[in-house]
């Protein structure tokens, strides 16, 4: 019987990932404390270093991020401390929570312009609120079902960008599978927002993130940071342009998909995923290095007097080409983000087998 040996190996790998997880959790704590005590440094670390790296990481290594996300590690504390009631969330409620989290994504992100981009304390407060909601949900529901796979706004971006994986990593959180989420986003190969779309709400959720996200990102980058929130038109633009962009790309997606069969529709989903992440970096990289057309928003370090602009443009086009190749033209492999751990019932049978030997 191979299962006992596999369990031993799994424990060793799990310990290694716990160490990696602790390192990234510590980094997250440092950034969080910087947001409170050194707000300018905290904003720089969070919004201008961590967040710009995240989309590329989700495209190429979604499973790695799912393993080391500091927020995920924190909100799973009730389960680790064995104080969670471990309730199941029905498929219907999963869809409702998905809808709420997509709305949260579309409401919170525009608030970066007037609030979070230049306010470390506000960003820290936002993180505290997300942690409080996640931990509260974790007290009632099992493992990742309450936050990481449903209510976390970033989860939908993970699904959009993580449709193709080169390899599957071990699961750093789950030592056994209890089927807390159906389908499990971590263990379902080639998972994307349109994977489960049986109900009307599931179809709406998929449409909002697949069709709407490219236009939403485009609209977001047309709005400069707002420093005077007393001017109504500025606050109107903060939401109007991203939401109008999302509506426009949703209409385009619906028009295109109406002519396609299922196989071609899957390709269209990957095209829209590539469009979303490409649009992000088309604007974000020039911002980071001082080549933005709308001032110093999102500046990490200015290279405007060091490098010619064509160098940055070339690097952006090169990166976008990689995204398009990876998400659209790269061969789809039957890979999930993470390796599904042994099912709880099989694990229990294995332990009984070991005790008898």
Short recap of the structure:
It contains 15 helices and no strands. With 357 residues, it is an all-alpha fold.
Give the proportion of residues in helices. Answer: 55-70%
Q: Helix and strand string, N-terminal first? A: HHHHHHHHHHHHHHH
What's the number of extended β-strand segments? 0
Overall morphology: globular
The N- and C-terminal alpha carbons lie at a distance of 11 Å
Mean pLDDT: 88
What is the makeup of the main sheet? none
Number of helical stretches of at least 4 residues: 15
Taking Cα atoms only, what radius of gyration do you get, to the nearest Å?
21 Å
Question: Which residues form runs of ≥5 with pLDDT under 50?
Answer: 347-357
* Protein structure class: mainly alpha
Strand content: under 5%
- The tally of structural domains comes to 1
What are its keywords?
357 residues, mainly alpha, 15 helices, disordered C terminus
Describe the structure.
The chain starts with a helix and ends with a helix. Residues 347-357 have low confidence and may be disordered. The chain is mainly α and 357 residues long. It has helices at residues 3-37, 39-60, 62-68, 70-75, 77-80, 91-108, 120-140, 147-151, 154-161, 200-211, 213-220, 232-257, 262-288, 309-329, 344-356. It is built from 15 helices and no strands. The protein has one domain (3-356). The chain is globular and about 60 Å long. α10 packs across α12 and α13 (262-288) packs antiparallel against α14. Helix content is 65%, strand content 0%.
